[in-house]
């Protein structure tokens, strides 16, 4: 039997430290036992400067929900052409009383870390569980992670994020 796992300040501290040491500036702690589970539950630590490429989840079972446990993040929502949808984008900050978001399938989105942050994330998966090739579709108008254009694009996203109220 799997043991009960507590979410503590120490666990969040450790995850942020691991994310700072990661080349991608983020790390995940999974609570689910394997990719086969339909409901994935995880802590996702994102440090300032991490690039989360805009994406969407196409399957009707792939909604995504998260609660910000520490830090400050912007959730940017995009139209199909890559324009930021400022009416639906949101600045998440527990200090300001905005804790999280539930994102239905087929919505282009990304996260921008304005402070080192940790979210508790829950994602649904279709029959068969997680399969990397069908988990998400990356926005064709956004540079791939590691592409030479990614740092400049991230700066644009950070500017949008800073202007959210």
Write the layout of secondary structure elements.
Blueprint (H helix, E strand, L loop, with lengths): L8 H13 L4 E5 L8 E8 L8 E2 L7 E7 L2 E6 L11 E3 L7 E4 L4 E6 L3 E8 L7 H4 L1 E2 L11 H13 L3
Antiparallel strand pairs: 1-2, 2-9, 3-10, 4-7, 4-9, 5-6, 5-8
Describe this structure in words.
The chain is α+β, with helices and mostly antiparallel strands and 165 residues long. The protein has a single domain, classed as Sandwich (Jelly Rolls). 18% of the residues lie in helices and 31% in strands. It has three helices and ten strands. It has helices spanning 9-21, 132-135, 150-162; strands at residues 26-30, 39-46, 55-56, 64-70, 73-78, 90-92, 100-103, 108-113, 117-124, 137-138. Strands 1-2-9-4-7 form a five-stranded antiparallel sheet. A three-stranded antiparallel sheet has the order 6-5-8, covered by helices on one side. A hairpin with an 8-residue loop joins strand 1 (26-30) and strand 2 (39-46). The chain is globular, with a radius of gyration of 15 Å. The model has no long low-confidence stretch (mean pLDDT 88).
For the largest beta-sheet, the strand count, sense and barrel status come to:
5 strands, antiparallel
Judged by helices, strands and strand pairing, the structural class is alpha+beta
> SSE string, helix = H, strand = E?
HEEEEEEEEEHEH
Q: What oligomeric state do these chains adopt?
A: single chain
Structural domain count: 1
Radius of gyration: 15 Å
How is the CATH topology named? Jelly Rolls
Average per-residue pLDDT, rounded, comes to 88
Number of strands: 10
Strand order of the largest sheet: 1-2-9-4-7
Helical run tally: 3
